[in-house]
Specification:
The chain is mainly α. It contains 6 helices and no strands. The longest helix has 25 residues.
């Protein structure tokens, strides 16, 4: 009798605040209430599937069943639709590849449509001196003469 009461108390607390072990197994099971979450992350209040599933997982763990045995029991009862496979390499690469592709597109767009700044020709050589450069040279000579007289 005490064992039954203890199991019922354990099952009740498992659904209200599941342990790490219950969440670990629940993360591998798809909630069947219609949401796209796992049993561990279903946010529906008083969910008709995840709450009893968490209680059942806690009960199965209390009798010593392993994670894989619990998952197989749920698959046997509800079919393969209840199993959530862990993400494969493709599932990990796609988000990063999408971000990389987006950055390349933005870079190419900015490169094509950015207006280049106009550069003034400050480094003209002696052979291609224009009228402004001749006046500048005249002023430079005057500055040199004035500064030579200061010494």
């Amino acid at each position: 009798m005490v064992l039954i009461v203890a199991m019922a108390a354990l099952a009740q607390t498992a659904s209200e605040k599941p342990s790490v072990d219950v969440r670990r197994v629940g993360a591998r099971l798809q909630c069947q209430c219609g949401c796209k979450d796992s049993v561990a992350t279903c946010s529906m209040l008083e969910c008709h599937f995840s709450k009893p599933a968490k209680e059942r997982i806690a009960q199965m763990q209390s009798v010593g069943m392993g994670d894989e045995q619990i998952v197989q029991a749920f698959i046997r009862d509800y079919g393969m639709a209840v199993y959530l496979a862990p993400p494969n390499a493709f599932g990990w690469i796609v988000p990063y590849a999408s971000v990389g592709f987006g950055l390349v597109v933005i870079f190419m767009f900015l490169r094509k449509y950015r207006k280049p700044k106009l550069m003034t020709d400050l480094g003209a050589g002696v052979g291609d001196m224009g009228a402004d450069d001749r006046e500048l040279a005249k002023y430079k000579e005057q500055i040199e003469k004035d500064t030579a007289n200061l010494d």
